[in-house]
Each structure stands twice: as C-alpha cells, then as structure tokens.
Design brief:
Layout lengths: L1 E7 L9 E10 L6 E3 L6 E5 L2 E5 L6 E3 L7 E6 L4 H5 L10 E3 H4 L8 H9 L7 H10 L4 H8 L3 H11 L4 H16 L5 H7 L5 H12 L3 H6 L14
Antiparallel strand pairs: 1-2, 2-7, 3-6, 4-5, 4-7, 5-8
Helix pairs in contact: 4-5, 7-9
C-alpha cells in the first residue's frame, strides 16, 4: 500500500496561516517502506475524525505502510505555528499531538471548524522569519543576521520560539529536502553543487545524518528497516 499526494487550493480562512494544503490518497502498490521526510515545517493533519499537529521532524522516519482512506495535510507558514498554537515550537519538535490538546474546547473535527478558529485569530508579524528563510537558503546564519540587522542570538531565539529549530538546523533540513527532490534526476556531485554544499562528501555526511543512509543508498532503495509507527512521540 502506497499513496499519491495532490495539492489543493487553500480555503480563504487558511491563506493567512498556511503555505499549502494537500490530500494523500492510498493506492495499491508494492511499497514495503513509507518515508516521513525530515521537515522544518509544522503541519496540521486530519486523521480519521480529528486533527493532529505534527511538529518539525529533525530526521527521516521509515515505517510500514498501513491502510487509510485519505489524509488531509495543511502545511503552516514558517514562523506562525508558535503563535497559532500558543506555545514555543521547540516543545513540539519530533512530536505528534492532538490539536484538541492545544486548543481547548470547540469542535475541531473538520476543516470548516478549524477554518473558523483560524479566522478568529490575529496573524502575528512574521516578516523577520520570512526574510530569514529566504536568506538562509543561500547564506550562512551570521550573514543572514547581519543583513537583517539583528544579532545571531536574537535570530536563534526567534526561530526556536516560532519555528522550533535553529536557523542553522532550518537551513540544514532545507538542503536535505532539496537533495531529496533532485537525487534521482542527476549526478550526485552536480546535486551537491546545486543545493549549496561545499562538495559531495559534505552533502553525503549531512544527508546520512538526517536520512539514516547515504544519498546513493537512498536512490538505490536501500533504506533502513521500517518501524511499526512514525517514530514520533506523543
């Protein structure tokens, strides 16, 4: 059992808070391992009849496929999850928590209800994080902080509070995710250059630390054995 994911349009109530919305639908296949990619974003996921909050994933998780009808996922914009959920995002790193545990009261079992809750909340000023995210894709942390006219310490504090991971870790996960999108389509040395690594060995070491295997083994399908669940704590 595997799945296909399709991006869908964001309802008006979600546009201020979310970057994208998608639906995963199961398909019959031969996949024996399902990858939960490392991700610096926080997402809301509608599972069965309730939403859960999936915090930033600092490492890949490999698990056994299981049957499901469909799964709606809402990827929140960087820097907004902490204000939306009412807690420092560092507390949700590598965790999955029912949304009802964070938003007390009310019906949170469908998209319309969550949309109404989002519409009633004020969106904080996220310009610093949005600008930092753009800069960190091409510049080291100290250069990004200097260009933003803030200290590295302040930038780290903002990211820990509103994103969950440090600026350096954010950039690291972003690079690995870029490799995942390109590794099967080009020579690894070229992929390393395209995704901001010093060289292929730098990319291989960082990829192995986050993904559990080297890029070459990942492309060949030589993956770590799956666990019985996603590997998150709750």
């Amino acid at each position: 059992m595997s799945h296909v994911e399709q991006q869908i349009g964001l309802p008006e109530a979600f546009r201020r808070w979310a970057a994208r919305m998608s639906v995963a639908t199961p398909v019959e296949g031969t996949a024996r391992t399902v990858l939960a990619e490392p991700d610096h974003a926080t997402t809301l996921s509608l599972r069965e009849d309730a939403f859960v909050v999936i915090g930033p994933r600092t490492r890949a998780r490999y698990h056994e496929p299981k049957r499901f009808r469909s799964c709606l996922t809402i990827r929140l914009r960087p820097g907004l999850a902490g204000a939306l959920l009412g807690l420092p995002m560092r507390d949700l790193v590598d965790r999955v928590v029912p949304l009802r545990d964070l938003w007390r009261g009310g019906d949170l079992t469908d998209v319309a209800a969550v949309g109404r809750a989002l519409a009633a909340r004020e969106v904080p000023d996220d310009r610093l994080v949005r600008a930092a995210v753009d800069l960190l894709r091409s510049k080291p942390v100290h250069a990004a902080a200097r260009e933003l006219n803030v200290s590295e310490r302040h930038l780290r504090a903002v990211f820990a509070e509103s994103v969950g991971v440090s600026p350096k870790h954010f950039a690291r996960l972003d690079r690995v995710r870029a490799v995942l999108g390109r590794a099967e389509r080009g020579r690894l040395a070229h992929v390393a250059a395209e995704t901001g690594y010093y060289d292929q060995s730098h990319m291989t070491a960082e990829f192995r630390d986050v993904m559990g295997v080297s890029p070459a083994r990942f492309v060949a399908g030589d993956l770590p054995p799956p666990s019985g669940c996603s590997g998150f704590t709750s």
